[in-house]
Write a structure and sequence with these properties.
Blueprint lengths: L5 H16 L2 H17 L6 H19 L4 H35 L20 H17 L8 H9 L12 H4 L11 H34 L6 H32 L17 H7 L2 H12 L9 H19 L3 H19 L1 H10 L6 H24 L3 H10 L16 H20 L5 H7 L2 H18 L13
Helix pairs in contact: 1-2, 2-6, 3-4, 3-5, 3-6, 4-5, 8-9, 8-17, 8-19, 9-15, 11-12, 12-13, 13-15, 15-16
């Protein structure tokens, strides 16, 4: 069930009304049933994967909590890791590693080889796997006691607003909220609906409209030259941001309506002045997960410079692999790892260069230059993320400098109106982002004239209704 579908427009209000009609004692059961139904709308059989892995982690955590023997606790942790990562490997990476192994061994007909496991990738498996892993690791470390109610733990794993594409919540943050009794609060509900509306605007008006321009170009890169490839790449940067952050906004807003607080997942990432800052603002729930459960355990920055850079590169290599079973994603992750390593190694040199050029005396310009460079590096990496193959990505890189002598033949404009709509919507979004630097925009709207506030709401709703598809366009991160 897609957030941007008619089915969800019926499902969510029904769940919300029933939720506030029931006593606190029965609300957890309702949310668990609703969450399982929500997931089964894609492929009912895959609910078994969630249920079985939930029971495995529930039992392993209880066993860890029942003993102080470090060896036994480690055994149960390993059992949880093997079960979770094993399922993830079988359903997401088995074919990829099989094809890669055949290539390395010199098989000549890799392209014609049948997949080892020809099944549909379970929606959201990477997200709920990492969420469960954080729980068992937290219990092993002693950061929290094991949850003794199976139903509550199952709800933590499957909570429908963030089940399919995050944010990847921590048990220490989300699990206690299921015990908190909340009453209907019109202000909180209204705030949640505003966040959902903003997320839907980003998804339908920007991401889906941008896809109409990006897909034809990246679907046949050989038919295009520099101008079209450049515009498509930049538009994809906004498409994937609005698609993914739009989902996160809808998830956060839906949870807020029901009285739950989910973590912030995006914080205006394209205003970042460095790639390091970009990853503090982009997919925050994933970047902090890798920081806390991989980077720091590897030693983080409290080791030699060589080990520190090795840790960084390892994290981003695995981050790329997490996104998908494709060398395109791996290269994308490695590029960001290289950005981080080079950025860290040259930080002092770049500071001296900036002072030598006098940029420190004009901080506004210096900031704009840094933001532009960071955005350019990010867009370059997005080429590998979006391209169908490494060959397509290499074609885009080689041909971006070509064809600029005659841009009248830009082939990205089968629908010029779509480009106008997308650019106008992006301008609106970035204006809102700029305003958010000094506080939430909703507070300014609330303090302003009523006609301005409701005019903005109605304009967003009308744009969504006019431009959206009846069945909704799938979110990009559902494939991860």
């Amino acid at each position: 069930m897609l957030f941007n579908s008619r089915a969800f427009l019926v499902f969510f209000p029904v769940v919300a009304v029933l939720y506030f009609s029931l006593s606190h004692r029965h609300r957890g059961t309702l949310l668990l049933v609703a969450s399982y139904y929500f997931y089964m709308c894609w492929k009912p059989a895959y609910i078994v994967l969630i249920a079985v892995s939930t029971v495995v982690d529930y039992v392993c955590a209880l066993k860890m909590g029942a003993t102080t023997d470090k060896r036994l606790r480690r055994t149960y942790l390993v059992a949880s890791l093997v079960a979770n990562l094993g399922l993830l490997f079988v359903f997401k990476y088995l074919n990829f590693f099989g094809w890669t192994l055949k290539t390395l061994l010199g098989f000549s007909e890799v392209a014609a080889a049948k997949p080892v496991l020809d099944v549909l990738l379970p929606v959201g498996i990477s997200f709920y796997t990492f969420q469960k892993l954080s729980y068992t690791v937290d219990v092993y470390r002693g950061d929290r006691e094991p949850e003794r109610r199976l139903g509550t733990f199952a709800l933590y794993v499957s909570f429908f607003p963030q089940l399919v594409a995050g944010p990847i919540e921590r048990s220490t943050h989300l699990l206690p909220q299921f015990d908190r009794e909340v009453s209907f609060d019109s202000r909180r509900v209204t705030d949640g609906l505003r966040v959902m509306l903003w997320g839907m605007f980003k998804k339908v008006v920007i991401a889906d409209m941008a896809a109409r321009l990006v897909d034809p170009v990246y679907g046949d890169v050989a038919a295009h030259q520099g101008p079209a490839l450049t515009v498509a790449t930049v538009l994809f940067a906004f498409q994937i941001y609005c698609d993914f952050s739009g989902y996160s906004d809808i998830a956060v807003g839906a949870a807020k309506v029901l009285g739950f607080d989910l973590m912030e997942n995006f914080r205006r990432p394209y205003f970042s002045k460095s790639v390091r800052e970009f990853w503090r603002r982009w997919h925050i729930s994933l970047s902090t997960w890798f920081r806390d459960y991989l980077y720091i355990p590897l030693g983080g920055s409290r080791v030699s410079a060589w080990r520190h850079y090795s840790n960084l590169f390892t994290v981003f290599f695995l981050c790329g692999l997490w996104h998908g079973a494709s060398w395109n994603f791996v290269v994308w992750g490695m590029l960001h790892g290289m950005y981080m390593v080079v950025g860290g190694a040259t930080e002092s040199w770049r500071g001296r260069l900036g002072r030598a050029l006098g940029l420190d005396r004009i901080p506004g310009l210096h900031k704009v230059v840094r933001v532009a460079i960071t955005f350019g590096l990010t867009c370059f990496a997005w080429i590998f993320f979006r391209a169908r193959t490494l060959g397509d990505a290499w074609y885009v890189i080689r041909h971006i400098p070509t064809g600029w002598s005659d841009i009248s033949g830009i082939a990205i404009l089968p629908t010029p109106l779509a480009l106008v709509i997308v650019l106008a919507a992006i301008a609106i979004m970035e204006t809102v982002h700029f305003m958010q630097r000094s506080g939430p925009v909703r507070e300014r709207l609330a303090a302003g004239p009523v006609w301005v506030r409701w005019g903005a709401y109605y304009a967003a709703v009308i744009a969504i209704l006019l431009l959206g598809s009846a069945e909704g366009q799938e979110f990009i991160y559902f494939q991860f």
